[in-house]
Specification:
The complex is a heterodimer of chains A (about 500) and B (about 300). Chain A has about 500 residues and is α/β, with parallel strands linked by helices. Chain A contains 17 helices and 23 strands. Helices cover about 35% and strands about 25% of the residues of chain A. In chain A, strands 13, 16, 19, 20, 21, 22 and 23 form a 7-stranded mixed sheet that branches. The longest helix of chain A has 16 residues. The two termini of chain A are about 45 Å apart. By secondary structure, chain B is mostly helical. Chain B is built from 13 helices and no strands. The relative contact order of chain B is 0.21. The chains are: A alpha/beta (about 500), B mainly alpha (about 300). The interface between A and B is medium-sized, with 20 and 17 residues.
Chain lengths: ~500, ~300
């Protein structure tokens, strides 16, 4: 697929970036040719994003050279990078929610809106990225937003496209589409830097891989010829522990019962929930698969109590057989609910408060507060226990939540929610955007909690994860929930079909 | 009937200073900055506008001086919040108090002086239409210009590139910065525009609407303008409707008091406030619409590169 091997498009020589004493990138060498699909593989915190931001001009390297088409360049800001022909799709999208797709793109590509609308449609068709240019961004799913980001890059005719964890937000069919798009781009001579920690994806897509660990290159490999285990060893430095998954006892008492749950969000762009029935029993993990934007967020909010039902419909949501649909979150937590939301910063934790105070948020029931006063030593030891339990990397209990990396914060939140000994635990996107090591640990702990008799509901877009940890699987599509199937009887294909709305497949699987 | 014509005719003029100041504040807030010094800027502008007309007789010069001074005060505010990233609420209150103090100081010599009120326009032919003629076509020029400005702003904010940039800076200054926009410059210009409009509002209040100077004559109109922006959910048309409604109710208060209906005057005086809140609360109860129009970053300091 490579067009010219002789002269590299981009070359990094001994690029080093430091933050104080911390070396984020240590003498990195990297060469990318036109038409390459080059993977940057590494765990969270390995320095992948820092390196890409250096290439894109978000910040400058402390040492080393960047060569663009054999010419040394100093890229001082993203606009300059764009002018050179470098486009980047960030993991956190830079789209404004209150304006339309075309208006968003018009901010960086000055052209009359009507022309842009046509160009967006044309690019979308050429590369298999359908979006409605006139749609307002706040109503778009994550997958659609990513398409908008990619189209925005493509409209600037880049020669190098950087994608930061692009599949962390996509369902499997959309991942296939994205890969097809990227291969088309590569055939057209556009080089792609693909950042990921998902081994199978990199093996399916990339021609070359550079593996980073703790800020340094630990090796390069042809991912198609190297097996996943070797790549993982380069990435983590040790073998990945597999979660143990003993047989479940299916006769636990129902902890959560959803009974003909119907709900329409005031925002008409959000999918309404229709006739949802589900029982989660003590000692089992039930997984809800599905493409984001099919009602999972609303369901999680209703179960956690962020949105509450009227008293008439209270029995649509029951805990231990008691209607709780009308109760606020605190009352539900008193009955043994704990909840890990999908949005870690902002909903799962207060970003500008310390780790110890964040522990207090839901741990206060464990005697951390006496006569309305916070027991500081108990609060701190509670936080320390959570840190130890999940091996959270942090500077201490007084560190701000926002200073933790995504994976570490997620581990901390999961530890905090487990520490209250819940009867029912609801987890949304438990391993979204966190590295393999952290994800495995979270999975192990969830299974351990299940074995101790907790009922667990996991809402995730990651099919592999659900197959790994769930006892039963169900799929959400357009606000409906399929009949749950036992994981051992289900296949990835059936679940994939159900994610596209073909619920008949669930009946076959159930038989 | 006469009373209704009186109310509707006067409503436009009564609403004009509120609307001018509210339109300026709307633009400032759309950029993500809340400037609470509107009352102070209006007072300073009113004092110096009055003094200029009193000494030179030129309304044009008075409006220019008033707008210029209010802009100077808004630059003080802008320096605090943009350069030093000071808290917007505290900085706004401080700048406002400075403006009120300056107005008292500079206007001391003119206390209780009056001006000859300028005569209103009279649009040929149209002003002879019964009822509507006197309501719509016998206003002063500033009233017409204010309506035009409002309509232009509505278009600019919704449809022009400048409006788009203003809105996105207010939604998320960090993304705007990453896309290459100069957030502080956009915010500075928005604050400056807010000052300009508050200056015009103050000058109109002291030289045309009630051409008499006394300290404290702005009477909280700056605060009402601020409230109109919020209750109008940052939408120009709603702010305009709210301002005119408020103006009409203020006059209705006067009119009803002359009728001696036995309603306590305190009740009537509070009516404009109560009614404006009720009406705007009803029209703006759609939570999604508010979410889509409210500047998300309102009140948050922004430093580039963080």
């Amino acid at each position: 697929m490579t067009i010219s091997k002789c002269s590299p498009l981009l070359e990094l020589r001994n690029v080093t970036k430091r933050y104080g004493d911390f070396i984020a990138n240590d003498a990195i060498n990297l060469t990318v040719h036109a038409g390459d699909i080059h993977a940057i593989l590494g765990e969270n915190g390995a320095g992948k994003s820092t390196l890409m931001k250096t290439i894109f001009g978000v910040h400058q390297p402390d040492e080393g050279d960047i060569l663009w088409k054999d010419v040394p360049v100093q890229i001082t800001n993203p606009a300059q990078a764009r002018d050179l022909g470098i486009g980047m799709v960030f993991q956190h999208f830079s789209l404004f929610e209150t304006i339309s797709v075309a208006e968003n793109i018009s901010l960086t590509i000055p052209a009359p809106l009507s022309d842009l609308v046509k160009q967006i449609r044309a690019k979308g068709e050429a590369f298999g990225l359908p979006v409605n240019p006139q749609a307002s961004v706040h109503g778009l799913s994550v997958g659609e937003r990513q398409r908008v980001e990619i189209i925005r890059c493509l409209l600037q005719e880049p020669e190098l496209l950087i994608l930061d964890e692009p599949t962390s937000v996509l369902p499997p069919p959309a991942i296939e589409n994205l890969f097809a798009t990227l291969r088309t781009l590569s055939v057209n001579g556009i080089a792609i830097l693909y950042i990921s920690h998902k081994l199978e994806e990199i093996r399916a897509l990339c021609d070359q891989a550079t593996i980073l660990r703790s800020g340094a290159v630990t090796g390069t490999a042809d991912p198609k010829k190297t097996n996943a285990k070797d790549l993982a060893t380069l990435m983590i430095g040790q073998d990945i522990p597999q979660p143990t998954h003993p047989k479940t006892r299916m006769n636990g008492a129902p902890q959560l019962t959803l009974n003909q749950l119907n709900y329409r969000d005031p925002n008409p762009n959000i999918v309404a929930l229709k006739d949802i029935n589900l029982t989660v029993r003590a000692g089992e993990i039930v997984g809800i698969a599905g493409v984001s934007g099919n009602g999972q967020l609303t369901l999680a909010r209703l179960i956690s109590g962020e949105d509450i039902l009227t008293r008439d419909h209270a029995s649509s949501i029951q805990m231990q057989g008691q209607p709780v649909g009308h109760l606020p979150p605190n009352a539900r937590r008193k009955r043994g609910l704990s909840f890990v939301p999908e949005d870690r910063l902002g909903r799962g934790a207060a970003p500008l408060m310390s780790i110890s105070n964040n522990g207090l948020l839901t741990g206060h029931r464990l005697g951390l507060v006496k006569n309305g006063l916070i027991q500081r030593s108990k609060r701190d030891s509670f936080a320390e226990n959570c840190i130890t339990a999940m091996n959270v990397q942090t500077q201490g209990v007084q560190a701000l939540a926002s200073s933790l990396s995504g994976g570490n914060l997620q581990k901390y939140i999961v530890a905090r929610e487990m520490a209250v000994n819940p009867l029912l635990m609801v987890v949304a996107q438990p391993t979204w955007g966190i590295d393999v090591g952290a994800a495995t640990l979270v999975h192990q702990r969830l299974i351990g909690l299940r074995d101790n008799g907790t009922a667990i509901l996991v809402i995730s877009e990651d099919i592999e994860e659900l197959f790994e940890i769930s006892d039963r699987l169900t799929v959400m599509y357009d606000g409906r929930l399929s009949n749950p199937v036992s994981t051992c009887n289900a296949t990835c294909e059936q679940i994939g079909q159900m994610m596209m709305g073909q619920f008949a497949a669930s009946l076959e699987a159930a038989e | 009937m006469d009373m209704i014509v009186f109310i509707l005719t006067g409503a436009f003029a009564t609403a004009t200073p509120l609307l001018l100041a509210a339109l300026g504040e709307l633009v400032t807030e759309k950029s993500g900055v809340i400037n609470l010094s509107v009352e102070g800027m209006m007072a300073l502008a009113a004092a110096m506008g009055f003094a200029t007309v009193y000494t030179t007789g030129s309304y044009l010069l008075a409006f220019a001086v008033a707008a210029g001074l209010a802009m100077l005060l808004s630059i003080v505010f802008a320096a605090l919040v943009l350069i030093f990233s000071a808290n917007q609420v505290a900085s706004g209150l401080a700048a406002g108090i400075l403006g009120l103090g300056l107005s008292a100081l500079l206007g001391r010599e003119y206390e209780s002086f009056t001006l000859q009120a300028p005569s209103g326009l009279s649009v040929p032919n149209l002003s002879n239409i019964p009822v509507l003629g006197s309501i719509l076509f016998e206003q002063d020029i500033v009233v017409y210009l204010t309506v035009t400005t409002g309509l232009c702003l509505m278009w600019i904010i919704q449809h022009s590139r400048a409006g788009l940039i203003l809105r996105v800076v207010g939604e998320d200054p960090h993304i705007a910065h990453n896309l290459g926009f100069n957030v502080l410059r956009v915010r500075f210009l928005a604050i400056l525009f807010g000052g300009f409009m508050a200056g015009l509002a103050g000058a109109y209040a002291s030289t045309i609407l009630t051409p008499i100077w006394s300290q404290g004559m702005i009477l909280g109109r700056g605060w009402i303008a601020l409230a109109l922006v919020v209750f109008g959910t940052w939408r120009v048309l709603r702010v305009m409707i709210g301002a005119y409604l408020f103006g009409a109710l203020l006059l209705a208060d006067l009119a009803v008091q002359t009728l001696n209906l036995g309603i306590p005057s305190q009740v009537m005086t509070s009516m404009p406030y109560v009614m404006t809140i009720i009406v705007l609360a009803i029209v703006s109860r759609n939570a999604l619409r508010i979410k889509l129009n409210a500047p998300v970053s309102l009140g948050q300091s922004y430093r580039p590169g963080q």
